[in-house]
Every structure is written in C-alpha cells, then in structure tokens.
Amino acid sequence: MHAAVVTPDAYLTEIASHLIVAGGKRLRPVLAAVAAQVGGQAASDDVVRGGVSCELVHLGSLYHDDVMDEADTRRGVETVNAKWGNLQAILAGDFLLARASEIAASLGTEVAGLLARTIGWLCEGQIEELRFTYDVSRTEDSYYTSIHGKTASLYGTAARIGGIVAGHTPETIDALTEFGNAYGMVFQIVDDVLDATATDEQLGKPAGHDMVEGVYTLPVLRTIALGSSAGDELETLLGEPLDAAKQRRALSIVRSSDGVASAIDTAGEYVDRAIAACDQFPDTEATAALRSAPVALLANVSIPV
To answer: 74 - beta bridge partners?
Structure first.
C-alpha cells in the first residue's frame, strides 16, 4: 500500500501515506484476499493489488470526509486537513483515487469499470446522507441507500474483485458480492449503534457525534418511530445542532429506548444474509473465515443496561 503512493515529490508522498502509516483495520484488502481463496487456492499478487486499490479508494474518501466534517483526528493522529490544510487534503484524496484507478486498470477493464462505478456509489451515498442532514423526517429507505453507497458497496466490490482476479465462476463472484454487501451493511449499522451506545473512551471521540452533525442513523430513527414520549422528546431535541446538555439528553434517550435493540436485530438480518451467501462456496478455511466475520462484527454491540 505504501509503495502504491510513493511519488517523486516527497511532500505529496508524505501526505498521501499519512493514514497508511497511522494504521487501520485493512478490512477491504483482507476481504479481497480471502474472497480469492474460497476455492482453496492462494491469493495471487494481482489479488493483493486489487485489494490495495479498494483500500486506496477508502483512504481517499476518508481524506474528503475529514474535510467535510472539519475533523481534527483520525486513527489517533492529526487528520490531513488539520495538519496540512483543506486544499492539500482534497488534492491528496484525489491523488489516492487516481492511484486506485491506475491499479484497477492494470487488472483489466472489468475491474477498472467496477472500481469507477463504486467511487460513484460512494459519492451517491454521501450525497444521500447530506441531503437529509438535520432532517428528523429522514426515512429508513434513505438511511439504507446511504450506507449501502458510502460503506457497503466498497466491501461488495472488494470481495468481487478478489473473485474476478482469482478466476472464480460467475456464480461464485456474485455470491461473494452479496456477502461483501451484506457484511458492509452490518459494519455500518454496528458502527452507528456504537456511536450511540459506546463511551467517549471506547470510541476515541465524543459519543453521539452523528446526532451532533445532524446525521440521524438507524437507532435514532427507530427511537423516534416508537411513538413514545421519549421518542417525541428526542424528535424535538433534534433538527438543529446540539449543545453539550442536549447531546447528553439525546444520548440518554436513545440508549434507554428499544431503538438500539431494533437496530441490532436489523444488523443480525444482514449477518444472516452474509452467512447464507457462503453456502455457495466450497468448505474451505477461507469460507469458514467469511462465515465468522459478520458474527464477530455483531458481537461488538450489545443492548445498554
């Protein structure tokens, strides 16, 4: 990954590699590699490069997200925009997307076209989220459309690229895509539940950040939809930026409502979809890893007591 962003310009290399050096889970390239191995074969260098292209798209989107959110930290370090400024962050994010596209093109027109379309999906998902900022009437359909575009689609693409480059059958490639999309939905719903239920220390950032930013996610939407007095109170609190006192109250309402449990149940439905997709694969170590991955994600959340 680091080698993919090295340029003759040391300054650009430093900016482009900033979040690579900072760390991260690398789930997308891992998924591409494991997807390639469901038939029992090893992941080739080309598969690894396909995974790298997906991770560079993810990193580029993070650079842009941090500019939009005016974020100061990411992965325990200063964000690129905080350290070098918005202009450099935007251009470095564009550079990462360009490098990802270059790598994808070297793997064939199908992979190149798929990655380009996925970048479009990411933009569409983010736009869907932005157009309903501070809108308490946001629908669940809008939420699902947004998280599929901005999160799940790249997981689906990572798995699909792993299958394409490995030479799997069309049926296996489609099942891998279904797995990746479902896994990505679990990932984002779990992340949204944690934003509402985890502590500041566990998150490494203030809890309830989404509500402060006017992004109303599934546990919040479900709490409002309950029609209870607490849900009605939450609805009156939202719709505008929250001060510290209102943020604490909004979090308290969500944490004590049935909306969290309902959101976790929905994440569980996507876990089931991901596991069902694995029925199309041979009984290999890679398949076992895929089956366990969404379960492990869901295990990160629990109903507050």
So the answer is: 77
In the three-class reduction of DSSP (H, G, I as helix; E, B as strand; rest coil), residue 77 is classed as strand
Angle between helix axes 170-197 and 218-225 (nearest 10 degrees) is 70
Decide if 278 contacts 287 (C-beta within 8 A). yes
CA distance 121 to 150: 7
Give the contacts of 8 (CB within 8 A, at least 6 positions apart).
none
- 292: which 2 tokens? 């366990």
The angle, 0 to 180 degrees and rounded to 10, between the axes of the packed helices 259-277 and 244-255 is 60
What whole-number distance in Å separates Cα of residue 59 and Cα of residue 20? 8
Backbone angles phi, psi at 40, to 5 degrees: 100, -5
Structural domain spans, the chain: 3-298
Tell the residue number behind the tokens 């679990």, with chain if given.
Answer: 186
CA separation for the pair 199, 205 (Å, rounded): 9
- Whole-angstrom distance, CA of residue 245 vs CA of residue 253: 13
Coil vs helix vs strand at 139 = coil
Q: Averaged over 19-24, what is the pLDDT?
A: 87
pLDDT digits (tens, 9 = 90+) for 22-38: 888 899 999 999 999 99
The CA–CA distances, whole Å, from 215 to 108, 182, 195 equal 38, 22, 11
Task: Domain 3-298: give its CATH architecture.
Answer: Orthogonal Bundle (1.10)
Helix (H) or strand (E) holding 98, with range, is helix 86-106
Looking at every residue in the chain, the average pLDDT score rounds to: 93
- Over the stretch 81-134, which tens digit does the pLDDT of each residue have? 999 999 999 999 999 999 999 999 999 999 999 999 999 999 999 999 999 999
